[in-house]
Design goal:
Elements lengths: L1 E4 H11 L4 E5 L5 H8 L5 E4 L3 H15 L3 E5 L4 H4 L2 H9 L4 E7 L15 H5 L5 E4 L6 H13 L6 E6 H5 L1 E4 L18 H13 L3 E5 L1 H4 L4 H11 L3 E3 L14 E4 L6 H9 L2 E5 L5 H4 L11 E6 L13 E4 L2 H11 L7 H23 L10 H11 L5 E4 L3 H9 L8 E2 L10 H11 L5 E6 H7 L3 H6 L5 E6 L4 H10 L14 H8 L2 E5 L5 H10 L4 E6 L18
Helix pairs in contact: 1-2, 1-7, 3-5, 3-18, 9-14, 11-14, 12-15, 16-17, 16-23
């Protein structure tokens, strides 16, 4: 037994999980935890400027490591309410963020005390679980519960409140069990009957397609998915935001499908006669919930770890509640001796030619000479200059949405986006968390000028902790998506769409980072290389044509068309 304060026990529990970094903002409510972190040589604390962006850092860290990301909000009340946006974002991405928040002393609850907020009620709808440590002797137990819930399928954020009097009190604690002693082991496989039924559909298909989603990406199971695709000689597409689920260079990888994907991948899904949805919900970003983006006549095999997702938006022929990589391996074995079908060979050969022509035309049509820079030229310059092993983070917004399928993602788990939460102000902070997790990898974060302006105070964090990411600000002096809608559907009645910002390259230098300004595509490659080699965080302010706007959600304005 060891006598410790509740704060020391909480930090010991974080160490027991093998977490290497904790992101947070100091506050008096959890000062005992910060004091315990002072002596914890196995954990690096990264002090942030805002709890929201700190949560995005923990989110990026979790996605990059495949483990939990920890954010510590030191103060109850305002320190804790600042977590809301970050945790809602993490929930949409199924990211295992563990949010630890200071809380009122137990004797002050329900007394309208200083900074009192009903923190459990506040977070109920945006995390997997929110609760409060009831007594000092149960701190280790509640901490284990936090990590267990966050990491259990389907993963997601949790929020645990730690009252200040409980953190200050002491108790005698037994040694903590190893994480493997209180977490599930293995992955659920599909029953043989379901595998045989799905295999029969795939063997009989003339135009098969596989959709790889987060269930493949987040488990780094591209090899299992590709073995199945090769066994079937089937094209494989990825759901939006998961373009890195399959390496770009594989001949069967068509890229991202759906309203925000490319025309080749989207056509495959709209014409396929059998669709294997492998670890994807077939949700909003993939389909807009309409048969405009998926063949209504197709037979769907839906594989998901979350049973409520199966057949939720589209009726399925076979629904399989199981782990996507495990099912991919089972199906590969089941179709291993299938005879090649002429129709499938023709379907795939036609796709390969179309994909090659699409990529070639994408480069040929890119306007690299336009001044100001237009998106097609910008993206061509980026494809030519970004390192193949880069980790890419994105915001939402019209330019970042175009980047989603305009870049080439050569390595699995190299693309981190807001996904269905559509958050502006995510990318830069997420990139800092990813860099903490992958210090030897280049991390490139894409933002619009509006999104970067929301979060640029974290340049201090980047410089202080040597989180040397490269942030590319696509600066078009407006909120681009909204301005495009005002242009296309509201007779150019612009209000609130145009914004002004200081020169971000100069702002970066004031913070102690490196700054670069790009006005022509020809300057981009040198700027990227210099930023990667400068040995400090870097910001590249790219001047983009404010009139080069694109309306993504045209479906939302059909009534005005």
């Amino acid at each position: 037994m060891k006598t410790q304060s509740g704060g020391q026990a909480a930090v010991e529990a974080i160490k027991n999980e093998g977490v290497g970094h904790v992101f947070g903002l100091i506050g008096s409510a959890t000062i005992e935890m910060f004091d315990a972190l002072y002596d914890m040589r196995d954990i690096k604390f990264i002090g942030v400027r805002d709890e929201r962006t700190g949560t995005h850092m923990a989110d990026g860290y979790a996605r990059a490591t495949g483990g939990p990301g920890v954010i510590l909000a030191g103060q109850n009340g305002p320190g804790t309410t600042n977590l809301v946006t970050g945790l809602a974002q993490a929930k949409a991405a199924y990211s295992p963020v563990v949010a630890l928040a200071g809380s009122l002393a137990t004797g002050h609850v329900y007394r309208d005390a200083f900074q009192e907020v009903d923190q459990e009620t506040l977070f109920q709808t945006i995390v997997k679980k929110t609760w409060t440590v009831p007594s000092v002797d149960r701190v280790p137990e509640m901490m284990r519960e936090a990590f267990r819930v966050a990491l259990s399928p389907r993963q997601g954020p949790v929020q645990l409140n730690l009252p200040r009097d409980i953190l200050a009190a002491t108790a005698d604690y037994a040694p903590s069990p190893a994480p493997k002693q209180y977490r599930s082991h293995g992955s659920p496989a599909a029953p043989d009957e379901a595998i045989q039924e799905a295999a029969a559909l795939l063997r009989g298909a003339k135009r098969p397609v596989i959709i790889a989603g987060g269930g493949i990406k987040n488990t780094v199971a591209h090899e299992a998915a590709l073995e199945l695709a090769e066994a079937l000689n089937s094209p494989i597409v990825t759901s939006p935001g998961h373009g890195d689920a399959i390496p770009f260079g594989h001949r069967l990888n068509a890229g991202q499908m759906g309203p925000r994907g490319n025309v080749v991948a989207s056509r495959l899904v709209k014409e396929a006669d059998v669709i294997l949805a492998l670890g994807t919900r077939l949700g909003f970003n993939s389909t807009f919930y309409t048969y405009d983006n998926i063949n209504e006549q197709a037979k769907i095999i839906h594989v998901e770890i979350e049973p409520t997702a199966i057949g939720r938006f589209f009726p399925v022929t076979v629904g399989i509640w199981a782990d996507a990589p495990t099912v991919a391996k089972q199906l590969t074995a089941a179709v291993a001796n299938a005879k090649a079908k002429e129709e499938v060979t023709a379907w795939t050969e036609a796709y390969v030619k179309e994909r090659a022509a699409y990529l070639a035309k994408r480069d040929e049509d890119a306007d690299v000479d336009a001044f100001p820079i237009v998106p097609s030229g910008l993206f061509k310059g980026l494809r030519d200059s970004l390192p193949k092993d880069a980790t890419i983070t994105l915001d939402a917004g019209t330019l970042c949405l175009q980047v989603t399928d305009a870049l080439n993602y050569w390595e699995p788990q190299s693309l981190f986006t807001p996904l269905d939460f559509g958050l502006v102000g995510f990318s830069f902070a997420c990139g800092l968390g990813a860099k903490a997790a992958r210090p030897d990898k280049p991390v490139i974060s894409f933002c619009g000028d509006g999104g970067f302006g929301m979060t640029l105070s974290e340049l201090s964090t980047a410089v202080e902790y040597e989180l040397n990411t490269v942030t590319i600000v696509m600066n078009n002096q407006c909120w681009g998506a909204e301005k495009a809608y005002q242009r296309d559907f509201f007779d150019e009645r612009y209000i609130g769409a145009d914004i002004s910002s200081p020169p971000f390259d100069k702002v970066a230098e004031l913070y102690g980072a490196a700054g670069y300004r790009v006005e022509r595509v020809a300057e981009l490659g040198d700027a990227v290389q210099a930023a990667l080699n400068c040995g400090k965080p870097a910001v590249i302010d790219v001047q983009v044509d404010p009139n080069a706007l694109y309306s993504f959600r045209r479906d939302s304005f059909k009534h005005r068309a």
